[in-house]
Amino acid sequence: MAEYDLSKTIIPYLDRHLAFPLLAHLVETSLFPVNHVQAAQYELAKGTNMVDYAVSLFEQLHPDEEIPDEFSGKRERAVSTNERLQQEAQALLDVIENPDVAQALRQDKNQNLQYLKEKYDLTLDQITALYNFGQFQYTYGNYSGAADYLYHFRVLSTDNDLNTSAHWGKLACDILTGKWETALEELNTLRDVVDSRSPSSLLASSTESASLNQLHSRTWIVHWSLFVYFNHPQGRTLLLETFLSPTYLNTIQTSCPWVLRYIATAAILSRKSAASITNASSRVRHSIREIVKVIQTEEYQYQDPITSFLKELYVEFDFEAAQRELTLAERVVADDFFLGEFREEFLDNARYLISEAYCRIHQRIDIGDLSERLNLSRDEGEKWIVNLIRETRMGAEAKIDLEKNVIEIHRSPLPVYQSVIEKTRGLAFRTQALGTGMLQPHQATQQNQSQPVEGAR
Amino acid sequence: MSRFLRTAGSDSSSSESESDSDEDESDMSAGGPEAKKKGRFLRSDSEDEDTDDEDVKHVVKSTKDKRVEEIEATGKVMDNALKINDWVVISAEFDKLLRLVQRQSNAAEPIPPFFLKTLSSLENSLNAALAKEKEAKKKMNAVNARALNSMKQKVKKSTKEYEKEVHQYQADPEALEREFALHSQPAEAAVVKTKKVKRAAESGSEDEDPVTDDHFTTVGKGGKAMQFTADAIFKTLKLVHDARGKKNTDRGEQMRILEKLLEVAATPYQCIRVLLALVSSRFDYNSSLTSYMPIDFWLAAEREVDQLISIVARDSAYSVQENTEDYDELLERSLDTEPDGVVRIRGSIISFVDRLDDEFTKSLQNIDPHGTEYIDRLKDEKVLYRTICRAQAFYESSQQQEPLARVIMRRLEHIYSKPDAVVNALESSLSSSEVSPSVTLASSSTTSGLVHALCIYLYKADNSLLRTRAILSHIYHHALHNDFHTARDMLLMSHLQESIHSADVTTQILYNRTVVQLGLCAFRCGLIKEAQATLQDIFTTQRVKELLAQGVHQQRFQAQLTPEQERAERARQLPFHVHINTELLEAAFLVSSMLVEIPLLASIDSEEQKRKVISKPFRRLLDFADRQVFTGPPESTRDHIMQASKALQDGEWEKCRDLIQSIKIWSLMPEVVSVKEMLAKRIQEQGLRTYLFTYAPYYTTLSLSLLSQTFSLPLRTVTSMISKMIWNEELSASLDQSTGVVVFHRIELSRPQQLAQVIADKINNMVEQNEKGLDIKLGGISGWGDRGDAKGEKRGEQTQERRGRGDRTRGGLRGGTRGRGSRFAQGLGNQMAGQSSQRAR
């Protein structure tokens, strides 16, 4: 199963600290030799300021050897840097913690700066010191502290580049501390920042590098957001909403087709929720159809058991192959860092998808055969099917004939008048809208003006 | 032959010697006829020179006198004509007079006072005549009046021209006449001296070669006499240079002179200068636009360009540039004379390389592609390729980015469309040459690697035209190597289809070639739908050959072309060996159309739906074949495909397969066997689909195993195909697993029901049309009213999708169909090259 492991492909798109959980997960799954993974962990930790962690890893790795001297030196340096940076930032921290100040701060950043400068004699350098301090906190693993500092920094600073950087830092902190709500908010604002950058930077001299930058940022967002989306309760739906939007779909297809695995899984997982939540957007409702289309086009670039499962099921309609792929996919899902928790749910939904497709195509189904398709024993299969019929509204159409051990499905074709009604639905409304549109050309032009901006995103 | 050459030869030699003796006098801007005249005179004199030296003087004198006499005679005629008021004669004579005087002044002789006198008197009488004319209108006939008027203009003009002299003359006629008389004396002496110098030179060389007197040696004498010193090289060079482009210059002669010069050139500087002149004079040899350069000259030029490059590459102290500071052409220059240690010479190697390549293409365009000559000529591509690579190596080492990009583009053009074997052959010649560019086949191991490396360089270049063409070549190369997905992604990501219509014609041709090759690639890979969609655009225009620059415009499609357009189009034609076989192309297109269209035809049952056509050209052919009363055995590719389509419609997939596989043109594809196998498989599948569509109404159940037997497909494939059709709601049926049959639930619609459906569709259409109309009227792209219902949402998504990459194969290629089709249709014929291409993103 190691060949389906994506850690190696994903890690280059993650922050050093974000890679730790992934590696820790790899230790658990034992896909790779443990000492290899530990060596990787150690190498990773060496580059950070988390000296103690690195030392403990080293001890695990080489129980007999002496701990290299460089660590003690490094620790001292880290401590001293920490103190220095803290002193630099302290002035500002004192001011901010003052409740009066918090009240006096306004929306306008420039005004705030002015205010702070006049009242407390704070300069831009000091604010930047806050950023440095936050960053340093992050490097030695104090994520919640770092999140705080970076948040304050962002409130005050006007420097765009540093602000974006602080955004990323804050997101990483939130992910690492597991505050998924805040992380989600952070992710959304960050996405806005990245997406909105295009119009302004289009004016800049080097358009190509700007769009390239944007592509990079989006690729990173896609990877980072996996943490959030697979942990937040609403995450899967949001993932589909985001990743299936044209810009991100393009990004994924261009630079990281392996993310298709996560979209596919999310689409399968969201099956039930999508059916139950009526207000989900059409994108989520038709996510499976969309993703199958994408999987088909990208087949030459990327495929794994999960995508092949969907392909076999919805493109080839080869239920045997789909079942084979499902067995594989189940293991892949179980081993995947992000998907591991959803194994049961995934299996459940995947089975549902299979039986749905199966029922739609067949008229008379042998229960034994269907159970086999679903990797279930005969009795289990029967139970499952009964549940299925009860859950969905197939009750009127499907009946189990226990004597012959078959399910009979009688689906009456859609009556003609129904389809005519379907076709003419909304025509009156559309015509009405047409009329209002004609009456208010001015308003329309205003809307037209706002439209392109939306489109540009 | 020799006589003609001799005339010309002695002409040039005499003018050389003349200029040698007297710098002032050698005014080379003298008109052609005069030079010739002089030449003839001088030659005749040199023939009898041996006997009588005095003769020279006499003859010279007589010409001078003759000229003056002539002028005077003309004046007399004019006087006579004036008396009878015949302005036509006056006008003619005056023209003659002007010419004579012009000649006189060209010979640096003063203007004869007689002319000035005539001019002023003419002015007077002209005024008088005009005054008279005004008084009595009927007096003159139309011709005469016109002549009078033109005379007025002419006189005014020449008076202005000779204003100073006329004034001088009017002030003091005597003095001027005296001066004129005086001046003629030294001039005569000078001429005599010229002759004597020439005499000396000739006698000097006659020692070496006293016998032959034919043209070649004559020149040799003249030339050689001056080539002994380095200084003289430049003088000769200058003379040759000056004579360049003149009407009566013998280009072959010039080349020979330069070749001789090259032999004696000693320093690199001299070599470079002579080579530069020699190569350009070789290219000059053929001035007409249509014919091509003689092949031996081309080869010589190729060698010389090689030589030039190797000299420049060897010695970095010399640099050939298009823009240099002015320098004295007649002086030898070396490192010491130059301030910064680099001798800069005016010239352009890259344009030589370009020209060499262009001439090669031109010759291939003109040679009959089915003869052996063509093959022989093609062999020269190897040397050309080597020269290009050599130039590339040179520019790489000297780090000149702009010409380097151009030369790399040339190299790329030679290899991008060739199969691996040919590229290997071309590249193998490189290993033997002493200088090799940074990127070779050896260094990049595969041809794709080589093309990739070359393209990468061009992508970084500033020149957007080169970038565009590089990416197109790259895509073409990928397509040629059956790498469909990469090629398609590159094409779509380049967004070229949006801007290609504003590119120059050659780039458009390259684009068309690339798209077509992509379609063929899809076909070879078995991606029938993609192949059909890609090739569709170009076939609907019905001008495939023209769009690929593989045949000229056909008259019936457009109004008459001007001769220039026709010539330009002819010049754009690609040489035969890079053609994409249009018959193969058509076969691929029609077969893929058949596979897409026939099941579709079978699936529709009402007349309304029949109008939805995917492939118009195919449908047209099919209708035509249907109307045929008798059909014979198939002959052409089209016949084969049409009969195969019919067989497929009837469910006889085996016959269809045999017909398709017996098409001979497939053998042109490198992967014949696999392509045929693929086609057989597709025909089986589509045959099954067609069969189901056609015969479903007549069955309630059909056994799956029977179907699998009939179409010799595995049961699993049959099941999966039927499942797919059921899932996509193409077929209203369901499978019965236990008995292994497919059950059809066909519902017969009553007439009113059917009509109700039709009218619902039509109402829908109408509303959509209305919305579109309003959109257009309001000028917005979408959304005049925020409807917010599902429809609006869907629509927004559609537009986004069109932009998106997700739906590329269908949305991307087919979505742009209409636009691109019209772009094809707007045609290359009436668009002349030279438009700047739009920047490709």
UniProtKB/TrEMBL annotation, chain A:
Protein biosynthesis in keyword set: yes
Gene Ontology biological process: formation of cytoplasmic translation initiation complex
Record bears the keyword Protein biosynthesis: yes
Cellular localization per UniProt: Cytoplasm
Transmembrane segments: none
An example Gene Ontology molecular-function term: translation initiation factor activity
Pfam assignment, any one: EIF3E_C
Residue span(s) of domain PCI: 228-414
Keywords: Cytoplasm, Initiation factor, Protein biosynthesis
PROSITE patterns in UniProt: PCI
Any Gene Ontology CC annotation: eukaryotic 43S preinitiation complex
InterPro entries: eIF3e (IPR016650), eIF3e_N (IPR019010), PCI_dom (IPR000717), WH_DNA-bd_sf (IPR036390)
Assembly and oligomerization: Component of the eukaryotic translation initiation factor 3 (eIF-3) complex.
Function: Component of the eukaryotic translation initiation factor 3 (eIF-3) complex, which is involved in protein synthesis of a specialized repertoire of mRNAs and, together with other initiation factors, stimulates binding of mRNA and methionyl-tRNAi to the 40S ribosome. The eIF-3 complex specifically targets and initiates translation of a subset of mRNAs involved in cell proliferation.
Family, as annotated: Belongs to the eIF-3 subunit E family.
Xref: PANTHER family: EUKARYOTIC TRANSLATION INITIATION FACTOR 3 SUBUNIT E
Protein name per Swiss-Prot or TrEMBL: Eukaryotic translation initiation factor 3 subunit E
UniProtKB/TrEMBL annotation, chain B:
GO MF term list: RNA binding; translation initiation factor activity; translation initiation factor binding
Compositionally biased residues, Polar residues: 828-841
Keyword annotations of the record: Coiled coil, Cytoplasm, Initiation factor, Protein biosynthesis
SMART domains, per the entry: PINT
InterPro entries given in the database record: EIF3C (IPR027516), EIF3C_N_dom (IPR008905), EIF3CL_C (IPR058999), PCI_dom (IPR000717), WH_DNA-bd_sf (IPR036390)
Subcellular location: Cytoplasm
Pfam families: eIF-3c_N, EIF3CL_C, PCI
Region (Disordered): 1-61, 787-841
Record-annotated PCI domain positions: 576-749
Coiled coil location: 119-172
GO cellular component terms given for this protein: eukaryotic 43S preinitiation complex; eukaryotic 48S preinitiation complex; eukaryotic translation initiation factor 3 complex
Compositionally skewed regions (Acidic residues) per UniProt: 17-27
Keyword Flavoprotein: no
Positions with biased composition (Basic and acidic residues): 787-810
Biological process per Gene Ontology, one example term: formation of cytoplasmic translation initiation complex
Assembly description: Component of the eukaryotic translation initiation factor 3 (eIF-3) complex.
Its biological purpose: Component of the eukaryotic translation initiation factor 3 (eIF-3) complex, which is involved in protein synthesis of a specialized repertoire of mRNAs and, together with other initiation factors, stimulates binding of mRNA and methionyl-tRNAi to the 40S ribosome. The eIF-3 complex specifically targets and initiates translation of a subset of mRNAs involved in cell proliferation.
The protein, known as: Eukaryotic translation initiation factor 3 subunit C
Organism: Paxillus rubicundulus Ve08.2h10
Source species taxonomy: Eukaryota, Fungi, Dikarya, Basidiomycota, Agaricomycotina
Record gene name: NIP1
